[in-house]
Amino acid sequence: MDRSLTRRRLLTTAAATAVLAVGPAVIVRPGWSQSGAIKIGVLEPRSGPVKYVGDKHIAALGYAVEQVNATGGLLGRKLEIVVADSEMKGDVATRRANDLIFSEKVDFLTGLGSTVGKAASQIASQNRKIFFTPTSEAVELTGEEFLDTTFRCTVNTEMHSALLAVYFTKLASRTYEKFYLLSEDDNFGRSATAGFKRKFAALKRPSQSIVGEEYHPFQRLQDFGPYITKVRASGAEVVITSDWGQDLRLLLQQGRALGWNTKVGSFFLNDPSTLQAIGTDAIGHVTASDYLVTVDSPANVEFVRKWRARYPNAPLESRVPDLTMGRYAECVRWLADVITKAGSLDTARLIKAWEGAKFETVWGQVEMRACDHQMQTPGYVAEVMPPEKIPHEIRYFGKDFPYIGRSVRISRDDITQPSRDTGNKRCA
Fold first, then answer.
1. 50-63 b/e with 16+ CB inside 10 Å = b?
2. What is the pTM of this model?
């Protein structure tokens, strides 16, 4: 068995507490079933340059599990998480997914990223366990490589890219004509770029065109100068990028330092750590997702309030549940609803209960499309603004650095990938 599990097992809020060092222990109610806890096996980076992303997700999972347990748990049992280090590698995720199932006896699997998600979903399917993902966007996961035990409670790359395509062809305050596509050279980057190209081609105005397309090494490039030089030479007015973490930070910092004058359409710019590092250079760029923390709904306002109360001394990147944290928390809440309705952990009954199910999230109603297990959802776009222009009630970081302003809603009909185009034989 993998030593990262035997020696570093993390359960429920113990994980979040270890990460954020805040808050009370989980309340374990008397009368929990003696059949043991319902366990979610979690594959997240616990080492390397994106460990902080894993920290945030563990905090979100801990929060969601606490909420479920505080209302009585599920089927008379408490819910808990068991975390393993995926190292963001498919082969590692495969080994540790097996460890989670056979040694830790988990009932469900989840994890960060498309590479990890594809590996974990296969192990889950082989063992008839549900794999649910709020982060793995690779379109083939619910498309041509569909497995009936996989459920995606986030947008896929086609839908995520569509948010930016809709914004820049229909909603932007001015018309941008020249677009450059620059992303990490991995499954997600290439899939996201292909998705943008398809949606852009269908929506673009006659004067709009793509003037360049490049891919760069994933999370190990330090000098973006050669790529930025090509962007400048192309005359691009907009750069569309699915970069995240240090890649996104370095791209924007070096782009401004080298004198580019472009607007960036990003998938993950609503990252406090990134925006703090970039500072005023981020102002005017936009980001898009199915959930943004500035969504204007009573349910989201209450969610953010409760999060901040639960983690009052959280580090900067977890001060509010933005990026994928909100999706993680809501996906666990949806899973809990499905388990309750199924009345069982039987995989066949869970599949039947989740297919076609509707659920009220903090950002709006979503639906799990029955044929491919792809969440259908509205989405949002927001622009990075200087603090003084952000409404006070959503100025979560005070005057410290720019952040996103109010979110613009884009309907699910505008971003939904038609079922016939998914490559999934069940949707034909």
1. bebbbbbbbbbbbb
2. 0.90
